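tool=predict chain=A
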Amino acid sequence: MEEMSLPTRKIRYMSKKIDRAILKLSGEVFGDEVDPIKFTNYESVAKEILKIVEETKIELAVVIGGGNIFRGREAESDVDNTEADAMGMLATVINGIGLREALVRNGAKDTRLMTAFDLRAFAEPYIRLKARHHLDEKRLVIIAGGLGIPNFSTDSAVAQYADELRCNIIFKASTVDGVYDSDPWKNHKAIRYNSVTYQEAIVKELGIMDTTAFAMCKRSGIPIFVFNISDLDKLPQIIKGDYSFGTLIHK
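tool=predict ok
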């Protein structure tokens, strides 16, 4: 894999202060090829999140996926896609409960789990102003259930919530270390971008997030930093202006 440097774009953004961020976590981080759910994975992710918040003092929301359990798009073609998406949204709630439990057990007593649909026995319903209040009070907020409607991915959800919660940046944890000009799993000569604009990501169909999410971020102007989930512990470096271990997508 090769790297394409576009440093002038990156430097322009570095001067902006990051005090509120939203982190997109794919469900795959909570399982492996054998076990879809591993409580040790919730534990390790929770500890990294707590370290990040402690070191940087940022206000942090987390949008959580459910791909380790079920993805709506993986349903067979004759299965109703609305019902399949409903199953996928419920899968994200399972991960949300698991991560909240690990965060609380490791010291984040006032962590809040919010869902896009009503599951009051397990989580608070997501209300924009209430979620902002939790962040203002320095509480960790986990949002599960996507947008609560079928046909929209958790990528679209994180773009929407980032805007509603007035976040400075989206952290997109991925299985690769940034955005490439082609699939790095299939092409070992794929080039990694240091920086790319929303429009370039849409036109070139770079694929790290869906087109709807890119369009939403382009409208709101909220930048996206794509990095490898194994580098989660490096997020404090971004707060200090180091974007070298991923790809920044912005204006």
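Helices lie at 7-14, 39-56, 81-105, 128-136, 154-164, 198-203, 211-220, 235-239. The longest helix spans residues 81-105.
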